[in-house]
């Protein structure tokens, strides 16, 4: 019971609410609430301060958190190593990616070679995928962020030039290429904070001394594509991520070399585990 209670404590501490924690654990909200109450009453401690529906760690909760985090990680590692002992005849490999464009061929090859392994592919921005890797929620991550961390194994798997994408009827679409200065008078569509595409766009504009007239923040590739088609603005998108559509035009950027690098990561301590090692063997390597 103590381990289950501590897992509920850990989930609530990470998620901030009982509702989100219960969804992550796959149990009911009353179960999580009951486990927290049992844990606190058994030892006579207050682990959280209740603020409406939110939960904030108390001093006692803060001091307990590092030990519980190690316990959760150890439990995940035990489960993973036991599954690994089956010689890849069964198991689950969880992959987090910024998009399917750079990793899907490897996923397909892995699935064909090891059909007994259940593959889960989660899509998110670069920062969230690296956080999920550190939290043991995934085994493999792809990210556009160059992260120097001695705990991480890293390999570059793609180098993708960024282009300007517009509607085919947009005034810029008639040009074969554009300068960053040409974007100043047009509405620019940006991904959410944490997106490497957004960071590269903003860094390039800042370096060129360009201030665009208007920006709109849109939280997904698919939504940006639809916004361009609806005439809301233009966007900078890595070449391999540009959707194929007759009403879209992709323009080269003159005088600026903006390249999206994609990296594959795993925790270095887990690199020898068979489920992960076999995936790394299949993944590409870019210069």
Describe the structure.
With 287 residues, the chain is an alpha/beta fold. The chain folds into 3 domains: 1-74, Winged helix-like DNA-binding domain superfamily/Winged helix DNA-binding domain (Arc Repressor Mutant, subunit A); 91-156 and 262-282, 3-Layer(aba) Sandwich (D-Maltodextrin-Binding Protein, domain 2), CATH 3.40.190; 160-259, D-Maltodextrin-Binding Protein, domain 2 (3-Layer(aba) Sandwich), CATH 3.40.190.10. It is 39% helix and 25% strand. Strands 3, 4, 5, 6, 7, 10, 11 and 12 form an 8-stranded mixed β-sheet that branches. Helix 1 crosses helix 3 (29-43), helix 1 packs across helix 4 and helix 2 (18-25) packs across helix 3 (29-43). It is globular, with a radius of gyration of 23 Å. The termini are far apart. 30% of the residues are buried. The mean pLDDT is 91.
Cα end-to-end separation? 51 Å
Number of domains: 3
Number of helices: 9
Q: Sheet bearing the most strands, described?
A: 8 strands, mixed
Query: For this structure, what is the CATH class of the largest domain?
Result: Alpha Beta
Calculate the mean pLDDT score and round it.
Answer: 91
What is the radius of gyration computed over CA atoms, rounded to a whole number of angstroms?
23 Å
Helix share, percent: 25-40%
Keywords: DNA-binding, Transcription, Transcription regulation
InterPro entries: LysR_HTH_N (IPR000847), LysR_subst-bd (IPR005119), Tscrpt_reg_LysR (IPR017724), WH-like_DNA-bd_sf (IPR036388), WH_DNA-bd_sf (IPR036390)
Pfam families: HTH_1, LysR_substrate
Organism: Achromobacter veterisilvae
